[in-house]
Specification:
The structure holds 3 protein chains of 3 kinds. Chain A is 72% helix and 0% strand. Chain A folds into 2 domains: 30 residues; 240 residues, no CATH class. By secondary structure, chain A is an all-alpha fold. Chain B is globular. By secondary structure, chain B is of the alpha/beta class. The two termini of chain B are 27 Å apart. Chain B has 10 helices and 10 strands. In chain B, a hairpin with a 2-residue loop joins strand 9 and strand 10. Chain C contains 11 helices and 4 strands, in the order H-H-H-H-E-E-E-H-H-H-H-E-H-H-H. By secondary structure, chain C is mainly alpha-helical. Chain C has a domain of 207 residues. In chain C, the strands form 2 sheets. Chain C has a two-stranded antiparallel ribbon. In chain C, strands 2-3 form a two-stranded antiparallel ribbon. In chain C, helix 1 crosses helix 9 and helix 5 crosses helix 6. The chains are: A mainly alpha, B alpha/beta, C mainly alpha. At the A-C interface, helix 5, helix 12 and helix 15 of A face helix 3, helix 4, helix 9 and helix 11 of C.
């Protein structure tokens, strides 16, 4: 038993390190190839923060079973914190060019500060909000999320349109953190490293006494407190922990965008970044499956990107093209269908594992051959 | 009062415990003393306030009068998890397991207060984490073994048969390392074989853990067989207290159960 | 004094609209314990229906506001359709949370579907006038007809609704289902029919609210309902969700908070104040001003 656990850790670490090195090497080799520079790198940046965002919401939504609709509020806090700090450093003359060890240190400082501030707000919001349950919690978090965005909008030093002391539309990346295409390639390793570390930390959290307590609360809160679990404490802790990573996702978002506007973080808008969209990602991947969230974040990004930019779209019939102009329409339908047939999301609480999944997949395929209808059952059986 | 060997301070004691819901006195002036190693029963017709008493004893409800003492320490005003930390654990009338978690995780979750590693240790997998987790695994398996649940350790709790779910709930309560165990109708819905198994389990638990047990039960034969001392509630009031024989022949108890007029079912919802 | 009165009227007018929308939320929540996030978008449906039917009405020589009858029918149909296609199947299988997520999905669906329809598109459309301009002068302040009609109509509608829930057979059935679904079934009440009626009425009210709203702000766009709906929902929760008089009270509270904070504090922070009220109320009295707290049974 112990041995398989150790082997699991070793394999996972090795694979993650390999992926990381591979990406960094590729980044150096292909840094001047235009497709890599203009398409792939920005895509990886986006995937990185979407992954962190989805996984962090899954902690609250999937593992703790509490619907929070204000998650992007924390992301906004993180994004603005990181942007403002970097701007302050630059104005103070600590760095000028986006290069050198000093800049890298500042970059990490921004990321961490973004997380910490978001977590602090997570505690502030969580203490009152988590006294409520179910629908009421959903509404109150929605309210907090809107307030956060609304207040940021009215801050004299952040503002609605940009970040240059109220000067409208001033682009962030000329003045502060925001990366252009070259910088995105240069600092791709930062995005990857931050994402890998964040996801790993979330896994460690879930697979510890904290995770057990949180899942116990999801399954039965009264029984959880009767089992000696301080439900209030664990709920706020998890909420803040989740907000911490949302903040970090926000910092990455700030890096990968030339401008920062609160409109991106509102509750519903057409953009890929809003609290609803994150909920869609989590549900799609499976409520209670971190790996599911990662997979679904990537899938959703690719889908979103392809629908918007793919050349194959123009070969589709006109009606479908029309629908594709509004991808949220497609997601809404997909979401309802998934909820109807798999209420816990596609992967449910199933976690992908490098050691087990390949074997299980083979068995599942074989099961498909044997019995055509055994699709979901086969998978669940494999999950155990 | 029956003759049980007893120490000086009772493990669990209540003094004039009572609660009213909007003027309705669900339980009043409830006094009980429970000594180490003792197994007492709490019986009464439907709606007599038995479960309310349990809710008072575990901090789910805040009493409007009186107090709960554990080893002489007053627990009033504390929250449920603090009651558990102090040493009172319970099971539920309608089984409340962590259904989506594995059997062993159900037990491990109840160790939470004993596991001293901190967030940092969990996130960075320090030796403290591994040590604590290994110790916990061992203890959890030991507990499951007592209840013959070891073989199901990695199954999900909801896949267990009914009787086993009841036992798992008791195992989980025991994992909190309590001094008093409150069992709310442990035999409800069980067939005779399962009940017999349960009786055996409860005896084992008593022997091995040397704790005090308070039991709510409808199955009279079970109560009479197991309990040394029985308290009878009716309309929130204690109407009798004593050994099984005494209770069985007490005219007030017989009236309460069989009724002398036809309003015996009132207050159903208070339970 | 003049400004105060003006603000008060604005608050009452807004509050009346919120109350009408809040009624829809509250009725549905009362009966199936679901926050119908798509309700705000029923307003959008109502708004567009009005825009498209007003010309027909005027062509037929009828007053423009008569178009609301068609809008009510369309909205009721959409509401019933959403319940039948999405909510009911999900309710059968899922939990509260999955139902809520479905509601959010339906809201997204309606908003984006409207954009995808060529006749509507993403750009705002301008509605004509519904009521004659002008009004009374009260204490130096003009009280225009739109305001008077809005307040009057919603007062009447709410009164009718209250009488409906208290006195009619269907109203009683609704209250039964919201109290105890299984007991209602045993009493021979058709739960499905009751739920559908609730959706139809609630959505119909959204059409009335749409008329009142665009009579004042004559611009209709696909996301018109999202913030409007959210605020109305806040109103429902503040008053005590599931309670008809609570929706009225909550609507007025939110309308007044909005108008007074806009007039006296800051127009850009209005939303913050509205949601702040929500948070304060939820924390002090989680079931709303008129609601009763019900603990979980152990």
């Amino acid at each position: 038993m112990k041995k398989t656990i150790r082997r699991g850790y070793l394999v996972n670490t090795a694979v993650l390190v390999a992926v990381y090195i591979l990406c960094v090497v590729l980044a150096n080799v292909f840094s001047e190839v235009s497709n890599f520079k203009l398409i792939l790198t920005p895509s990886i940046w986006q995937c990185c923060y979407l992954i962190i965002l989805a996984a962090s919401l899954n902690l609250v939504l999937g593992f703790m079973g509490q619907l929070s609709l204000g998650h992007c509020g924390f992301m906004a806090i993180g994004a603005y914190t990181a942007a403002l700090i970097s701007l302050a450093f630059q104005r103070a003359g600590v760095y000028d060019e986006k290069s050198g060890i000093v800049f890298v240190l500042i970059l990490f400082l921004c990321v961490i500060c973004a997380g910490v501030l978001a977590a602090m707000f997570g505690v502030l919001v969580g203490i009152p909000a988590l006294r409520l349950k179910g629908d009421y919690l959903a509404i109150i978090t929605l309210g907090f999320g809107l307030i956060i965005v609304n207040v940021i909008n009215n801050l004299p030093f952040a503002g609605q349109n940009g970040l240059a002391e109220g000067v409208a539309s001033s682009s962030l990346y000329q003045n502060g953190l925001g990366f252009g295409t070259t910088a995105k390639v240069t600092y791709l390793w930062v995005a990857l490293a931050v994402t890998i570390i964040c996801v790993a930390l979330m896994f460690m959290f879930i697979r510890s006494k904290y995770g057990r307590a949180v899942r116990a609360i999801r399954d039965d809160e009264i029984a959880a407190s009767a089992a000696g679990i301080n439900t209030g404490y664990y709920k706020v802790l998890t909420f803040a922990f989740s907000a911490f990573f949302a903040g970090i996702a926000g910092a990455l978002y700030a890096c990968s965008n030339s401008t920062l506007s609160t409109a991106s973080f509102s509750f519903t808008n057409g953009s890929i970044l809003n609290s609803t969209f994150v909920v869609v990602m989590v549900v799609l991947g499976g409520m209670g499956s971190l790996t599911g969230s990662i997979v679904s974040a990537v899938i959703m990004f690719v889908l979103n990107y392809q629908i918007a930019n793919g050349s194959w779209v123009s070969s589709l019939p006109g009606f479908i093209q029309g629908v594709f102009t509004y991808p949220m329409l497609v997601y809404a339908i997909v979401l309802v269908i998934i909820i109807m047939f798999r209420p816990k999301g596609i992967f449910g609480t199933y976690e992908f594992s490098l050691l087990r999944t390949p074997g299980e997949f083979v068995r599942w395929i074989k099961g498909l051959g044997g019995k055509k209808k055994a699709k979901p059952e086969g998978k669940e059986a494999a999950a155990q | 009062m029956s003759e049980v060997k007893r120490e000086d301070t009772p493990v669990l004691e209540t003094r004039g415990l009572g609660i009213s819901f909007g003027g309705l006195k669900a339980v009043q002036d409830f006094n009980i003393k429970l000594y180490k190693g003792e197994l007492a029963g709490l019986i009464g017709p439907n709606g007599a306030g038995k479960t309310t008493v349990f809710n008072l004893l575990t901090g789910v409800y805040v009493p409007t009068e009186g107090s709960v003492l554990l080893n002489g320490e007053v627990l009033n005003g504390k929250k449920t998890h603090q009651f558990v930390a102090a040493g009172i654990a319970r099971t539920f009338q309608n089984i409340r397991l962590f259904k989506q978690m594995s059997v062993i995780d159900n037990v491990k979750a109840a160790f939470a207060k004993d596991i001293k590693y901190r967030m940092g240790a969990a996130l960075f997998r320090t030796p403290a984490y591994w040590k604590a987790e290994a110790a916990m695994e061992e203890r959890a398996l030991e507990l499951l073994d007592i209840f013959n649940l070891k073989e199901f350790a990695n199954q999900s709790a909801s896949s267990l048969p009914y009787g086993a779910q009841r036992k798992l709930e008791i195992a989980r309560a025991l994992a909190t390392d309590m001094k008093v165990l409150l069992l709310d109708e442990p035999a409800a819905g069980m067939n005779p074989t399962e009940t017999a198994e349960l009786v055996e389990c409860i005896s084992i638990v008593r022997e091995r853990f040397g704790i005090a047990i308070l039991l709510i039960e409808h199955d009279m034969s079970l109560v009479m067989k197991l309990c040394e001392r029985i308290t009878v509630l009716d309309y929130g009031q204690t109407i009798a207290e004593g050994g099984p024989e005494e209770i069985a022949n007490n005219p007030r108890v017989i009236t309460a159960y069989l009724g002398e007029n036809d309003d015996g079912e009132d207050g159903e919802n208070l339970a | 004094m003049g400004e105060f009165l003006q603000t008060l009227f604005v608050g009452l007018r807004l509050g009346s609209v919120y109350a009408l929308i809040a009624l829809g939320y509250t009725m549905v929540y009362g009966i199936i314990r679901l926050i119908n996030f798509a309700h705000g978008d029923f307003i959008m449906v109502g708004g567009y229906t009005l825009i498209f039917t007003v010309p027909l009405m005027t062509a037929a020589g009828m007053p423009a506001w008569m178009a609301v009858i068609i809008a009510i029918l369309v909205c009721a149909l959409v509401g019933v359709g959403v319940e039948l296609i999405a909510y009911r199947p999900v309710r059968k299988k899922g939990t509260n949370m999955t139902a809520l997520i479905t509601a959010i999905a339906m809201s997204l669906f309606l908003e984006n579907l409207a954009q995808a329809i060529p006749a509507i598109g993403p750009n705002p459309m301008v509605a004509g006038t519904f009521f004659e301009s002008g009004g009374f002068r009260v204490a130096g302040v003009t009280l225009d007809y739109t305001t008077i009609y809005t307040i009057a109509v919603s007062a009447v509608v709410m009164l009718l609704l209250y009488v409906f829930t208290q006195k009619t057979k269907m109203g009683r059935a609704m209250r039964c289902v919201s109290e105890d679904k299984s007991a209602a079934i045993l009493m021979g009440i058709s739960v499905n029919k009751t739920v559908l009626t609730t959706f139809a009425i609630g959505s119909g009210l959204a059409a009335v609210a749409a008329l009142m709203y665009i009579a004042q702000y004559p611009s209709v766009y696909t996301t018109i309902g999202s913030l409007l709906g959210l605020k109305a929902f806040v109103a429902a929760v503040v008053g005590g969700i599931g309670i008809v008089p609570g929706a009225m009270l909550g609507g007025l509270v939110i309308g007044l908070v909005e108008s007074f904070s806009t007039a006296y504090i800051s127009s850009s922070l209005t939303d913050t104040f509205v949601f702040l009220i929500l948070i304060i109320v939820l924390l002090i009295k989680p079931a709303g001003i008129l609601g009763k707290n019900v603990g979980e049974k152990v």
